[in-house]
Design a protein that fits this description.
five-stranded antiparallel sheet; 578 residues; alpha/beta
Length: 578
């Protein structure tokens, strides 16, 4: 018995696989591939590649396991050895989803896949249908956000590695929870990134904030695209993920006739036919381009859904008054109303902050092609101090944000701890073993926010372990009165959404909004439901006939006969008789 090692390395003149200090020569085959059959190698064998006789040996670009970190040897993994118990599992359809984004390292005190299982019953009771994991492939150090990953096929060892990840997904399915994975194909981290030694994974044709762009269109791009598509299919097939979230697809530099996203969509659909399971592919995009979620038959890329930042920005600026940076393009009730009706605020109109025409109108698409949220890892973590919405505004306004997320026509998503107004921030943290790189990251963070008027001492140091520890959720808060009250509000909203089909109806044509910019009120119509918001400084009187009040954010809200009375910073949801 033995194992066949294979690697795409057209740049190499000679190649060997080293196992226990013995280098086994590899033979070049067609298309720049190399291979070697090694007797005695098996699952659990550690190995690395020696390129042109140079040392140190480097990990396999397709390594399935990196137990000693991103610079250590790879380990052969038998993907078929895990005993799954989810053969009958099918995920809930995306239009009915409630998505919960979480970061494994800060979700629990232990920060592991196994520890996360402790809270699956809680998520099910909350009403969540889909858990979305921030990136879990191997990245430098023990802790980090995961967006500087380098070994895309290997689950992060400090989280527990491959078997523990499979245990978590299997347990999620046992609890009736689908699992989505955030994958990063627009760049790789700077430390431990050895791909360029093997092959043209990057191209000089395009420059990005991370250096040369991932090669999706230049010479050799057919194999680069195969690398990323195979990675996506592996997570779905071998780890039983129910879908993927593609990070920052606007950074894909691809002018091919068949765009990488279209290729990936088609290959995922083919895997569905093979396995009999439904999968979803969700894109994060800054383009405001509905073609991403339009079918290939209609000239689109075939993504199932995309994150919609315009709704977030419109909502948060109205609630907090923050108009810094890209928030300067938002801030009116009219923006919020337009986002609810049309998805994109900037849909082919001039955007002052960008100083250009931005976006394209959404036409003929259901709203469940878009995710709606008041918080996510980016919008919290990219703030100087990682403040959550409940740190930036009042409890009453945080309740309004939640209510609009769950009554908007989009697929709702919440970020870990949001539902109980967690006190822990979510700050930007890293654990770069390369001290010079760590120093540059720390200094870069301070310079970034100095431009916004922050003093350097106020900015948490990403390399300081306390920055990471501060970001861990404190689960004891859940039972404390103030936090429990917010949690109950979220549970009521989720139950309301699930019990009223009007709220999962994705028809934008049937989503109507009225508002007053001067009096700061907004009225959202979802079928026979009315969502009334008062953001003004005075009590709002709203007349509605033949109605009952379903939910109210404030005990002071009253509904007598036909008059609904809302104090400032409150929201009520009513159902009118047909």
């Amino acid at each position: 018995m033995g194992h066949r090692f294979k690697v795409w390395a057209p740049k190499a003149k000679t190649l060997g696989v080293t196992i226990e200090n013995t280098i086994h020569p590899m033979q070049q085959t067609a298309g720049g591939w190399w291979q070697a059959d090694v007797e005695g190698a098996h699952a659990g064998t550690d190995y690395a590649f020696v390129i042109d006789g140079s040392k140190p040996a480097v990990p396999d670009p397709r390594s399935a396991s990196q137990p000693q970190g991103v610079h250590g040897p790879s380990r052969v993994l038998d993907q078929a050895s895990f005993q799954w118990t989810d053969a009958q599992w099918q995920a809930a359809p995306l239009p009915s989803a409630i998505i919960y984004e979480l970061h494994i390292g800060t979700f629990t005190p232990e920060g592991t896949f196994d520890a996360a299982q402790q809270h699956l019953a809680y998520l099910k009771d909350l009403g969540v249908t889909h858990v979305e994991l921030m990136p879990v492939n191997a990245f430098p150090g023990n802790h980090g956000w995961g967006y500087d990953g380098v070994d895309l096929f290997a689950p992060h060892a400090p989280y527990g590695g491959s078997e523990a990840l499979k245990r978590l997904i299997n347990a999620c399915h046992e609890h009736g929870l689908a699992v989505l994975l955030d994958v990063v194909y627009n760049h790789l981290g700077p430390s431990g990134n050895y791909l360029g030694k093997f092959a043209p994974y990057f191209t000089h044709l395009h420059n990005t904030p991370w250096g040369d762009a991932v090669n999706l269109e230049d010479a050799g791009s057919h194999e680069v695209r195969r690398f990323f598509c195979d990675n996506a299919l592996m997570w779905l097939r071998d780890y039983h993920f129910d879908g993927l979230r593609l990070d920052a697809v606007h950074a894909y530099m691809d002018r091919s006739a068949i765009h990488f996203m279209e290729q990936l969509s088609k290959e995922v659909r083919a895997l569905e036919a093979e396995t009999g399971h439904r999968y979803v592919v969700i894109a994060e995009s800054d383009l405001n381009d509905p073609r991403l979620v339009t079918t290939p038959e209609a000239g689109g890329y075939g993504m199932d859904a995309q994150w919609s930042d315009d709704f977030h920005h419109a909502l948060v600026t109205v609630l907090t008054g923050d108009r810094s940076g890209y928030y300067s393009d938002f801030g009116t009730i009219a923006d919020l109303a337009k986002s609810l009706r049309s998805v994109f605020v900037y849909d082919g109109i001039y955007a002052p902050h960008r100083d250009r025409i931005h976006g394209r109108p959404v036409e003929g698409l259901p709203a469940w092609r878009f995710l709606g949220y008041a918080q996510d890892h980016d919008q919290v973590g990219n703030r100087a101090k990682g403040e959550r919405l409940n740190h930036l505004t009042s409890e009453s306004r945080a309740k309004i944000a939640a209510a609009l997320v769950f009554t908007a026509p989009f697929v709702p998503m919440l970020f870990q701890g949001e539902e109980w107004a967690a006190s822990a921030p979510f700050q930007y943290f890293t654990d770069h073993e390369d001290k010079e790189l760590g120093r540059l990251v720390s200094e870069g963070r301070k310079k970034e926010f100095a431009a916004f008027g922050w003093t350097p001492d106020e900015i948490p140091d990403p390399q300081d372990k306390q920055t990471f520890l501060r970001s861990k959720l404190n689960w004891q808060e859940v039972s404390e009165p103030a936090h429990a009250q917010m949690l109950d509000w979220y549970k009521q909203l989720i139950a309301l959404r699930k019990s009223h089909p009007q709220l999962t109806n994705g028809s934008l044509e049937e989503t109507n909004v009225e508002y007053s910019e001067t009096e700061k009120w907004l009225l959202l119509h979802r079928g026979d439901l009315q969502i009334v918001v008062n953001l003004g400084s005075k009590e709002l009187k709203h007349e509605v006939k033949n109605a009952q009040m379903l939910l109210a954010s404030d005990p002071a809200i009253s509904f007598a006969q036909t008059i609904l009375s809302l104090p400032p910073d409150s929201i009520a949801i009513l159902k009118t008789a047909k």
